[in-house]
Amino acid sequence: MCACVVSRDSAQCVSSRSTVVKCSITANCVKPVSIVHHLRAIARHFRLGRQEDAHEFLRYFIDGLQRSCLHGYPTKLDPHSKATTVIHQIFSGYHRSQVKCLECQRTSNTYDPLLDMSLDIKNCTALSKALHRSIKPDLLEGDNSYACPYCKKMTKAQKRFTIQRLPRVLTMQLKRFDFNSMFGGKINKTVAYPEHINMRPFMSSTQGPSEWYRLYAVLVHYGFSCHSGHYYCYVRNSNNCWYCMNDSQVSQASLSTVLQQEAYLLFYIRDENHAPPSGGSSKSQAVRSDPKFLSTPKKVAIGLDKTGTPFVEETDWSCPSVPQDHYTSQDVFKWKNHAQL
């Protein structure tokens, strides 16, 4: 798909059913006619003319690209080999699910691929708040107690999800729709999100250098429910200018306009050249590694607004130290079944 746009020529993408999907390009716009005509090759339940969820389409489309990369290889390919495709190298990271027994204090970790983050935005006015909520520990007790393999009984425990390894392209879904509702309710409110965001505080290891990401695309749903409405997006081009893509209409947009949208999907790309905000020097990074510093909550820069001013959040740095996230795909799957670090 990318080669098709860049070369201004037709490109082919083979789906899992060997259906060829082509992009038709004119001097004015990209017409994904063949994609529309082969929706069922992407997902069987998709129908032309029916309102579909953009996040669901994205997940099926990325999955289709992954299967295309594996076309011609054995069906029962090992997970390590599957993780070497260009799709996984771009979009996939790993998250860690950790269960901690509150009696023996031992932990059990499970690692799974991370293709996107679905964030609950109820009672949240900023992306950073939703991210903090996503890593907040859940208490397992009562009927939901934990069967501790060390205590040999049901115990109270804490379960927590964190990011073990970040992808090159980080996709975040702000959960605005209630698909279980008869009328498909939607949360219509603005959730503030920065142009730059540091993802280090949301990782399994909060120690180490900052992990900065830069916003490069925003998808917006215009409408009042998941059953109707219209999707359009804002995309940052290679010239660092923002453009609003609304069907066949393309218009330039300012960064301030982009940051004021009621976003549904946010796309961030790793920004290794991003300069840290004021106070984010290597000296401050060394201070964060000091056990005295880690003993109490501190205020750290979690992102930058459109003027370059850091968002300051109180973050709990007192969580126990865990190994750095320099694991290979093979290591991750080796440890998958509740392995002990």
Give an overview in words.
This protein is an alpha+beta fold. It has a domain at 1-72. Helices cover 21% and strands 33% of the residues. The protein is built from eleven helices and 20 strands. It has helices spanning 2-7, 33-37, 39-42, 54-69, 79-82, 86-91, 127-134, 255-258, 282-288, 291-294, 329-334, and strands at residues 12-14, 20-22, 24-25, 30-31, 93-101, 107-114, 117-120, 138-140, 146-148, 153-155, 157-165, 169-175, 196-198, 212-225, 228-236, 242-246, 249-253, 263-270, 298-304, 310-315. The strands form five sheets. Strands 7, 12, 13, 14, 15, 16, 17, 18, 19 and 20 form a ten-stranded mixed sheet that branches. A four-stranded antiparallel sheet has the order 6-5-11-8. Strand 16 (242-246) and strand 17 (249-253) form a beta hairpin. The protein is globular and about 65 Å long. The two termini are 40 Å apart. The model is unreliable at 1-22, 280-302 and 311-341 (pLDDT under 50).
